């Protein structure tokens, strides 16, 4: 009976030690990498923009467009980049047939222009964007990689982006950090004036 109690105590101690070690390992992992959930997937700051985006079920259209435009390698490079990433429903708001037309090989230049219009050189957090808006007395103008500007303003508790066509998009998830920049999830596709 004493032997049984002794074995039970040893087994309990072993289980507690393993549980504590696992909890500590998990806590250490969380301290190293603060993830944000986007499209049902964890976005890891140690992964690049493309490595994270391919896991988001909300960004399958964007990922397909990036691949069709031949921009995967660019968005995997060191950057840093600030990407305003439209969700699938943002692409669905475009006129019927727009996405299909953009994905055709003969429209690759136009597709590249639309996609790079969502990218700004450098890593700009939401705090950085809000500081620029404050410096600009309520608005901030950013030059995109496509060469055209976007205008930002604070709208309630979020940031609203206006494209050169007059369209508006709102940041729905800010500060999704990447190894080569940051993603801000947006609810509409930005379209440069042609």
UniProtKB/TrEMBL annotation:
Keywords: Signal
Position of the signal peptide: 1-23
Domain FAS1 per the UniProt entry, residue ranges: 46-190
InterPro entries hit by this protein: Adhesion/Biosynth-related, FAS1_dom_sf, FAS1_domain
Pfam families given in the database record: Fasciclin
Source taxon at top rank: Bacteria
Key word Signal present: yes
Stated name of the protein: Fasciclin domain-containing protein
The organism of origin for this protein: Ferruginibacter yonginensis
């Amino acid at each position: 009976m004493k032997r049984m109690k002794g074995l039970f105590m040893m087994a309990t101690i072993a289980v507690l030690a393993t549980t504590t070690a696992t909890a500590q390992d998990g806590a250490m992992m969380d301290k190293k990498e603060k993830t944000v959930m986007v499209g049902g997937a964890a976005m890891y700051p140690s992964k690049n923009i493309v490595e994270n985006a391919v896991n988001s079920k909300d960004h399958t259209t964007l990922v397909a467009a990036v691949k069709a435009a031949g921009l995967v390698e660019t968005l995997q490079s060191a950057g840093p980049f600030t990407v305003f990433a439209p969700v699938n429903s943002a692409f669905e708001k475009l006129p019927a047939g727009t996405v299909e037309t953009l994905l055709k090989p003969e429209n690759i230049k136009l597709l590249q222009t639309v996609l790079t219009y969502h990218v700004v050189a450098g890593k700009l957090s939401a705090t950085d964007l809000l500081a620029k808006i404050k410096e600009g007395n309520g608005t901030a103008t950013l030059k995109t990689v496509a060469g055209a500007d976007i205008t930002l303003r604070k709208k309630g508790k979020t940031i609203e982006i206006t494209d050169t066509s007059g369209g508006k998009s709102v940041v729905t998830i800010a500060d999704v950090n990447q190894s080569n920049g940051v993603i801000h999830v947006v609810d509409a596709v930005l379209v440069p004036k042609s």
